[in-house]
Amino acid sequence: MLSLAARTWLRYVAPLSLLAVLAIVPLAALTKLLPALDPPQARWRLAFGAVLALGAYFAQVWLAAAVAPAMRSLARGAPLSQWRALAAGAGQLARAWAPVAVAAAAIVIGGVALVVPGLALLVLLAQTGASERIGEPLPAPLADSIALVRDAFWPTAAIVVAAIVIDLAVADGGQLALFGQIPRKNPGPAIVSAMKLKPYVLLALAGVSPLIACALSARASKRA
């Protein structure tokens, strides 16, 4: 399964990178919600990094829909051209946004209401974007994801955990290490400057997203 993911990423790295930028673009709006930090608020940058990482994970579930056509073509032994992979992926992104948005809302609501159901849904709905039923009315893609993951819950959970750890590392930019250095009152200007969101963070998230999306899409695509 991971071999198929790696082969897809290596063969289609250019179109998948372009599609990843499209998938990550909505997070730019999220970054606008981060206010200019003054010293007493420096610790909030870490919390925002966690929110940004979760948003990146949802973008990668969405990107898995764009990965699916290219990956399925490799699995069938009839690989798409680079341009066809790009066009097919863009079409899948357009079809997948609503199911993935519903899945994200279900995960967030489940996590806020009761932590354990939210964590379970985080794994069970990981295949929503990659579902073959992405064009069908809701809740077909979500139900298909649950059916797919149920037989491989722990391998899927491992991929999800790895994806979120990578996203958190990129989104926080190593700033978690600064947490113990931030005084509760009036941290110095250097600490505040270090805690600001860097403009390259979104590009870095777009860079790691294709490989994560390939890993998320592999099980559904191999079934096809």
Report on this model:
The model is unreliable at 176-181 (pLDDT under 50). This protein has ten helices and no strands. It has one domain. The chain has helices spanning 2-11, 13-24, 26-31, 44-76, 82-113, 115-124, 140-150, 153-172, 189-195, 201-223. It is mainly α and 224 residues long. It is globular and about 50 Å long. The chain is 73% helix and 0% strand.
Topology:
Blueprint: H1 2-11, H2 13-24, H3 26-31, H4 44-76, H5 82-113, H6 115-124, H7 140-150, H8 153-172, H9 189-195, H10 201-223
Radius of gyration: 18 Å
Separation, N- and C-terminal Cα atoms: 12 Å
Name the poorly predicted regions.
176-181
What class do helices, strands and sheet pairing give? Answer: mainly alpha
Which percent bin holds the helix content? over 70%
Order of helices and strands: HHHHHHHHHH
Helix count equals 10
Report the sheet with the most strands, covering strand number, pairing sense and barrel closure: none
Give the number of domains: 1
What is the arithmetic mean of pLDDT?
Answer: 82
Instruction: Determine the strand fraction and express it as a percent band.
Output: under 5%
Tally the beta strands: 0
